[in-house]
Amino acid sequence: MRRRTFLTGAAGLAGIGWSGTSRAQAQAWPSKPIRLVVGFAAGGASDIVGRLISPGLGERLGQTVYVENRAGAGGNLAAASVAQAEPDGYTLMLATPGPETINPTVYDKLPFDPRKDFAPIALLCSILDVLAVPADRPWKTVKELIDDARARPGAITFSSSGIGSPSHVALLLLQSLTGINVVHVPYRGGGPMMGDFLAGRIDATIGTGPVLMPLDEGGQLRILGVATAERSPLAPHIPTISESVPGYAMANWLGLAAPARTPPVLIEKIHQAALATLADPAVRAKLTQQSAVPTPLGPQDYAAHVKAEYERWTPLLKAAKAKVE
């Protein structure tokens, strides 16, 4: 794969045609509210983060930034709507791993091209993923769960929010490193999955901290490990999965992107507003409460991050023959 791949190159093309009157328009931007498209339903981790950062973006850009939830197809519906939007700075996407790094492998056809249709703005944050089991299950550690899965192939169920979702990829990584044989139970979204999980119909899941950690504190489930390579400062008392499964590391992340050909001057304005928002102590505190760690990167570094993630997960997904029918 050539170096200029996912999200790269788009920013370079973005300035074509912006001269004269267009430059004056850029100086006047923004003159109306800005739409931040989130590819998942209200209440999920991405929606929560989108609503946390949008006021700060709006304050720094001098215009309202509002969240529009466009859920469906693992974030593809939202990504398609952004790809087709005018590249005028008034439509942004809260980017997630699915459309940019996972879905190109698990979907045979996408209504957008992640290589060409988006301009990178910033990596915003990583969201802590955790391995959890219902409170009535016997396992107290990751090792106990893995040992039992090895002793009883096909007996333990793992849920995910859908084929190709980050929770599914997290499970595939666990299976590839341990050789365990468990039953994958995919759902159409996190809401239905959590309903069955909390009802005890599922044995384990790997999901986002903002959803699972409050339930652990309330005694409704038990978190066995965090997915980061090292113990998280957000939950230093919880072991990492890698302490039982060497080499295990995964981070769910959120970024900010715009339609390709969005003018570089606007990309830079939004990027600076995002950096300033993430540096705000009040915003950082709220993100921490949601198990999210600010990880600000600029457009080029963000594009490199997406490329690396795509190259990491594609072989794993292909080996598992993970496909959405």
TrEMBL record:
PANTHER family: BLR1237 PROTEIN (PTHR42928:SF5), TRICARBOXYLATE-BINDING PROTEIN (PTHR42928). It comes from Bosea rubneri. Transmembrane segments: none annotated. It comes from the Bacteria. This is Tripartite tricarboxylate transporter substrate binding protein. Belongs to the UPF0065 (bug) family.
